[in-house]
UniProtKB/TrEMBL annotation:
<dbReference type="Pfam" id="PF00881">
    <property type="entry name" value="Nitroreductase"/>
</dbReference>
<dbReference type="InterPro" id="IPR029479">
    <property type="entry name" value="Nitroreductase"/>
</dbReference>
<keyword id="KW-0288">FMN</keyword>
<dbReference type="GO" id="GO:0016491">
    <property type="term" value="F:oxidoreductase activity"/>
</dbReference>
<keyword id="KW-0560">Oxidoreductase</keyword>
<keyword id="KW-0285">Flavoprotein</keyword>
<protein>
    <submittedName>
        <fullName>Nitroreductase family protein</fullName>
    </submittedName>
</protein>
<dbReference type="InterPro" id="IPR050627">
    <property type="entry name" value="Nitroreductase/BluB"/>
</dbReference>
<dbReference type="InterPro" id="IPR000415">
    <property type="entry name" value="Nitroreductase-like"/>
</dbReference>
<feature type="domain" description="Nitroreductase">
    <location>
        <begin position="37"/>
        <end position="205"/>
    </location>
</feature>
Length: 229
């Protein structure tokens, strides 16, 4: 953590160490791949409650992510309050209507056609939890003095990936939602100007008739997404 008082560099022995054979490592990596291939972006939810303790545990997982200078420049607002979710939906849909009315540009809107999205976002009120991810552009000490955070987008993106994975492995479905602009979230959730909202994550259980766009199952092959030298 970052502190106003000078901190000195000290070390401790590596607290956790995996000691696996190559065969065990391959088995573990394959098992994880198989589980992550069952993750889908879901837009159809039921209002079945999800215990707060599960969300808390997933957020602890997100908080364990690496970050620039270990500043951990993120804040997660977990929302189950129906009135707050309704406000977020109304304001998000207002921005989405502007987007689909032409604000997003023809190319972007055409790119979304195979996904089947519209300005209507019922998942924002039906899903039992919304988690809004904020990136902390700077921090403040108790006396109001600012300090700089480093590699903020990269750090927050990694933590968000941890969170999505934790939610999935806990048996929940998720949907990432990024209305543009998102400044209304600061006012709706009482977050300071130092924080920039980056994403709304809906989390919950899928509806019995939930569907996903078929195009979402088309993934680029390994040779297109990687190079070995």
């Amino acid at each position: 953590m970052f502190a106003k008082d000078k901190l000195t560099y000290t070390t401790i022995p590596l607290p956790d160490r995996a000691d696996m054979s190559d065969v065990q490592m391959q088995a573990e990596s394959t098992s994880f791949l198989d589980r992550m291939r069952t993750r889908h972006s879901v837009r159809d939810y039921v209002d079945r409650p999800v215990p707060r303790e599960i969300i808390e545990t997933c957020l602890r997982t997100a908080g364990s992510a690496p970050s620039g200078a270990n500043h951990q420049p993120w804040h997660f607002v977990a929302i189950s309050n129906p009135a707050i979710k309704q406000r977020i939906r109304e304001e998000a849909e207002e921005e989405e209507r502007k987007f689909y009315a032409g604000g997003g540009g023809d190319e972007w809107i055409r790119a979304l056609e195979p996904i089947g999205t519209t300005a209507d976002k019922p998942h924002l009120t039906i899903a039992p939890w919304l988690i809004v991810v904020f990136a902390q552009r700077w921090g403040e000490f108790d006396d109001g003095t600012r300090y700089k955070n480093y590699y903020v987008p990269e750090s927050v993106n990694i933590a968000t990936g941890f969170l999505l994975t934790a939610l999935h492995l806990s048996g929940l479905c998720t949907l990432t939602h990024t209305p543009n602009p998102m400044k209304f979230l600061n006012a709706a959730l009482g977050r300071p100007a130092s924080e920039k909202p980056t994403m709304i994550i809906a989390a919950g259980h899928p509806a019995p008739d939930a569907v996903v766009p078929s195009v979402a199952k088309i993934k680029k092959p390994l040779e297109e997404i990687s190079t070995f030298l």
